[in-house]
Write a structure and sequence with these properties.
six-stranded parallel sheet, 41% helix
Length: 210
């Protein structure tokens, strides 16, 4: 419970009056925080954790950026070249540069050298985008996994993120995000798994996982 919500009711107040007063206090607190947030720059977002929704959240931001007419870059590490709804949809937009660079999940390829070559090629594409100021938003999907398995050098990634154009936003997804990446990020969300249909034997569904 917030301090605002814990203010006790005053004598004679109706429930409607208490509610209105509480919302007025909350609005004043929110407005004050908005007024204090004056800095405008590109942000680094890290979406990690074992729960579903990391890539889905990132692609929601792609849709949001397109709504503002912004240019977007997407590089997918690890994930294979199987058809997905987001790939089919976002490739319709000339504002989106979409690259599927993975060879498949590690348990599918079972070939570390192959995985490392694919990740290195993906990083070359990503690094070029991170030097290009015309990209307003870049999504590096499953990069955290490539970092976790040391397919891509962490310090190289951190340096590219630090050196990117000042107004450029970057979203990094994937389980097991390194502590150094989390530390350098502006916004971090750790998605926790509570339930998943797959655990009950439900296969991946088009429009949900695919």
């Amino acid at each position: 419970m917030s301090v605002i919500d814990s203010v006790p009711p005053q004598p004679g107040e109706t429930s409607e009056a208490r509610y209105r007063a509480r919302m007025q206090r909350r609005k004043a607190a929110v407005d004050a925080r908005i007024s204090a947030a004056t800095e405008q720059r590109g942000v680094l977002l890290v979406l990690t954790g074992n729960g579903k929704g990391k890539s889905s959240s990132a692609f929601g931001m792609v849709a949001r950026a397109l709504g503002h007419g912004l240019r977007v870059g997407v590089v997918q590490f690890i994930k294979g070249r199987y058809a997905t709804g987001e790939r089919a949809f976002f490739r319709r937009f000339p504002e989106v540069s979409y690259h599927v660079m993975g060879e498949g999940f590690t348990w599918e390829t079972q070939d570390r050298e192959r995985d490392m070559r694919a990740a290195a090629a993906a990083w070359d594409v990503a690094a070029a985008m991170l030097r290009e100021p015309t990209y307003a938003l870049i999504v590096l999907d499953e990069l955290s996994i490539a970092l976790r398995y040391r397919y891509v050098a962490l310090e190289r990634v951190l340096e590219a993120l630090r050196s990117r154009p000042a107004a450029q936003h970057v979203v990094v997804t994937g389980r097991g995000a390194p502590a150094e990446l989390i530390e350098s990020a502006d916004t971090v969300t750790n998605m926790r798994a509570v339930k998943h249909a797959f655990d009950a034997g439900v296969r991946a569904q088009r429009g949900i996982e695919l």
